[in-house]
Design brief:
The complex is a heterodimer. Chain A is of the alpha+beta class. In chain A, α8 runs parallel beside α11. The longest helix of chain A has 45 residues. By secondary structure, chain B is α/β, with parallel strands linked by helices. Chain B has a single domain, classed as Rossmann fold, CATH 3.40.50.300. Helices cover 30% and strands 28% of the residues of chain B. In chain B, the strands form two sheets. Chain B has a six-stranded mixed beta sheet. A four-stranded antiparallel beta sheet of chain B has the order 2-1-4-5, with helices on one face. The longest helix of chain B is centred in the last third of the chain and has 16 residues. The radius of gyration of chain B is 17 Å and the shape is globular. Classes of the chains: A alpha+beta, B alpha/beta. Chains A and B meet through α1 and α9 of A and α1 and α2 of B.
């Protein structure tokens, strides 16, 4: 075994040391693979960023209550009486001012994107006093919170970055009223950062919603309280509601666009990978052709076919991993943290998010590069191992 | 013959036995008979020159004896090891242990120093690094190139490169040295030095050598010369 490994090491070392003599072809293969990886990581970082924006961190103890037939807050509706019954259900945590439950309104307003100037749907959420305590990770980073009963809004940091007119102190027109931006908040990078918040009681008349709401957010006593909370509501004959965990609700709402972006990303990357694969094949075939006599010499001296195959595949792997690392670095510095917004087709609202080049994406990129390298090296390696030694010794 | 000869000579001192060997190549539909029923015996310790015109089958015969090629028909046995019955893997291992090869164009790996080139066959053994370095030093000393051990092939003259090639061929102390036109790429002076070296390896170290050559001056150094013509032995001439 040691003998065999030393054969592999010797031939691999020899192969790698000849790369500078073939720097043009090697560079082409490296750049090709780097391009594939950069595009793959770049596109998938969009999906990762979107998914991150639609994901909450921390304990899974926030529940959302919607009308039984609704899939989104937009299509849901709850009366004040229903929200009172829900807030009194067992399992809801209580604060100094009562149950941690917030009956909320969810409407869309049009605002121009900073990047293009075109109008986009931005979610405006009417919330009750407990909303911040329920989310837990809400922080006012500029200005102050809105005062109940006044036409004031606070703006999520993602929305403030993405849409014009949401700077602190500015006024926006909602319905027939003017609303002043009095604060900017962060929400752990989650979906709330794409929203504008105001007092639900002020938003109801502005949108002629009477005394109705669309959803109710509740913080539970513990994640384990969800089952009893849900059972209490779904078995109450006075209520026709559905109860979901916030984490699952947001994840479900992001599946369509995340899947779409991932599909596009993998499709583009697969096409590019095919090109890069031919590049790698070409590089390694020419590497084998350039070294026909040297490989035959090693075989004549007694080196086995398997070490030759493995060494050529290792060489291809090294080149592809260099390409993968280069592509990953380019993708990281070009895309990671780049902010954008897109419409979530499931809610028709704009979600502001930052591209996220995650460690998982980088690992996947390296795996792609390695697969391209190994496949690209395999066939040339087989050719090298099958060289007729006697005739190959005289080539060159 | 058995397959367990371990490369040593038979009871009658014959190391190489080529028995009724044909070698046919195909070029499209055409069959080219390079060797045709050839018989040859080489005793241990002989320095044999194989001569003949181009295309007579000298190198093909050398390749068959060295296990680099297989006969279409017939048998090649080295010290009782029948090469045609060995798998490719076993044949590679056999070559590593029993055959030292010297090529016309040296076939050194350009990215390795002289010492590293000489060390290559030892990577196929179980020797430690220190043992390998010791053997390499001895081989380079035998060919008079100790002072050039760390030089790369491109910095060596043709004669020096061929000496490195010979050092690589002898470093694992093989049973048989096979030399394919070892002076074919050298001027007369460098060629003579190589021939002196081969003669010394034969006379002083007892190496069995088979050398393909066009050059009567080179074949004169051998203890016996055989001529090939159209795939058959045409004449034998003891030195």
């Amino acid at each position: 075994m040691i003998n065999w490994l030393s054969q592999v090491a010797a031939v691999t070392l020899f192969n790698l040391r000849t790369i500078p003599q073939r720097r043009g072809a090697a560079l082409a293969a490296i750049v090709g693979i780097a391009g594939v990886v950069a595009v793959l990581v770049g596109v998938l970082s969009i999906a990762e960023g979107f998914r991150a924006a639609m994901t909450i961190t921390g304990p899974d103890d926030i529940a959302i209550v919607l009308r039984a037939s609704a899939d989104t807050e937009m299509t849901s509706g709850l009366s004040r009486e229903e929200t009172r019954l829900i807030a009194d259900a067992p399992g809801i945590a209580r604060g100094p001012e009562g149950p941690l439950a917030s009956a909320e309104l969810f409407v869309m307003i049009n605002l121009p994107k900073r990047s293009t100037g075109t109008d986009a749907n931005v979610p405006l959420r009417g919330v009750q006093r407990a909303a911040s305590a329920i989310r837990g990770d809400m922080t006012i980073v500029e200005g102050r919170n809105f005062e109940p009963g006044r036409n004031e809004v606070i703006v999520g940091a993602g929305a403030a970055r993405a849409f014009a007119g949401l700077d602190l102190g500015h006024t926006i027109k909602v319905g027939q009223s003017q609303w002043k931006v009095v604060g900017i908040f962060t929400g752990g990078g989650g979906a709330a950062e794409s929203e504008i918040w105001t007092d639900a009681a002020v938003l109801q008349p502005a949108y002629q919603r009477g005394d109705s709401f669309q959803s109710l957010y509740a913080r539970l006593e513990s994640p384990d309280s969800f089952a009893s909370f849900k059972d209490a509501l779904t078995t109450d004959p006075r209520l026709k509601v559905k109860v979901v965990r916030q984490r699952e609700f947001l994840a479900e709402q992001s599946t369509m666009i995340t899947s779409f972006i991932q599909t596009i990303g993998f499709f583009i990357a697969a096409l590019m990978a095919l090109g890069a694969l031919f590049g790698a094949l070409n590089t390694m075939y020419s590497a084998v052709a350039d070294r026909t006599r040297e490989i035959a010499t090693l075989r004549a001296l007694g080196f086995g076919a398997a070490p030759v195959i493995i060494s050529i595949m290792l060489e291809s792997l090294v080149l592809s991993l260099i390409g993968g690392a280069l592509g990953s670095a380019v993708a990281y510095f070009a895309f990671n943290g780049f902010t954008a917004s897109t419409i979530n087709w499931q809610t028709f609202s704009q979600i502001a998010f930052a591209f996220a080049v995650t460690p998982q994406l980088l690992v996947m990129a390296v795996v792609w590069a390695a697969v391209i390298g190994l496949v690209g090296g395999f066939f040339p390696a087989i050719r090298a191992a099958r060289l007729p030694i006697a005739s190959a010794l005289r080539e060159g | 013959m058995s397959n367990s000869g371990e490369g040593g000579p038979g009871a009658n001192g014959i190391l190489v036995r080529v028995d009724g060997v044909d070698r046919t190549f195909h070029r499209g539909a055409e069959e080219i008979h390079v060797l045709d029923g050839l018989d040859l015996e080489v005793p241990q310790g002989e320095f044999l020159a194989l001569m003949g015109p181009s295309g007579s089958g000298k190198t093909t015969l050398l390749n068959l004896i060295g296990g680099l090629d297989r006969p279409t028909r017939g048998s090649v046995a080295i010290g009782g090891d029948r090469l045609e019955s060995m798998s490719a893997r076993r044949l590679a291992a056999w070559r590593a242990r029993h055959v030292g090869l010297v090529f016309q164009f040296y076939n050194l790996l350009p990215v390795l120093s002289a010492a590293r080139n000489v060390e290559l066959p030892l990577l196929l053994t179980h020797m430690s690094g220190a043992e390998r370095r010791r053997h390499v030093a001895v081989a380079l000393e035998v060919v008079g190139l100790s002072h050039r051990a760390n030089h790369y092939p491109r910095t060596l003259s043709g004669g020096e490169q061929q000496r490195v090639g010979i050092a690589r061929a002898i470093v694992s102390d093989p049973t048989l040295l096979l030399c394919d036109e070892p002076t074919g790429d050298l001027d007369r002076k460098a060629g003579d030095e190589i021939l002196d070296l081969l003669q010394a390896l034969n006379a002083q170290h007892g190496k069995t050598i088979i050398m393909v050559t066009h050059d009567p001056h080179a074949s004169a150094r051998a203890t016996r010369t055989v001529h090939l013509d159209k795939g058959q032995l045409s004449m034998e001439a003891p030195a």
